[in-house]
Amino acid sequence: MNIVNATILRNNLSSAIKEVKRKDYLLVAKRGKITSALVDIELFEDLLSLKDKKFLKSIKKAREEYEKGEVFSHTEVFGEI
């Protein structure tokens, strides 16, 4: 099973993210108990879509816009910080 200790995850976040890309998810354990999960964005979107069909449509639209290059820069969204 894909379980990682929270401290190890914190200290190796970059490697953990790469692992999520390969395995779709990592379960995060604190003191031996699974408390949360780190999941690939596509899996997360699929899980959300099971709950809300409108959300699925918005994801498809967002992916199409992204593929067409219709994106905003960080500054356009958040302004100057």
How is this structure best described in words?
The chain is of the alpha+beta class and 81 residues long. It has helices at residues 6-11, 13-23, 41-51, 53-67, 74-78; strands at 3-5, 25-30, 33-39. Strands 1-2-3 form a three-stranded mixed beta sheet. A hairpin with a 2-residue loop joins strand 2 (25-30) and strand 3. The N and C termini lie far apart (41 Å). This is Antitoxin. Belongs to the phD/YefM antitoxin family. Pfam families: PhdYeFM_antitox.
Write the layout of secondary structure elements.
Blueprint: E1 3-5, H1 6-11, H2 13-23, E2 25-30, E3 33-39, H3 41-51, H4 53-67, H5 74-78
Parallel strand pairs: 1-2
Antiparallel strand pairs: 2-3
Helix pairs in contact: 3-4
Quick overview of this protein structure:
The chain contains five helices and three strands. The chain has 81 residues and is an alpha+beta fold. The relative contact order is 0.11.
Order of helices and strands: EHHEEHHH
Strand percentage, roughly?
Answer: 15-25%
- Stretches with pLDDT under 50, minimum 5 residues: none
Helix-and-strand structural type: alpha+beta
* Count of domains: 2
Question: Main beta sheet: strand number and arrangement?
Answer: 3 strands, mixed
Shape: extended
Number of helices: 5
Distance between the termini: 41 Å
Helix % is: 55-70%
What Rg do the Cα atoms give?
Answer: 16 Å
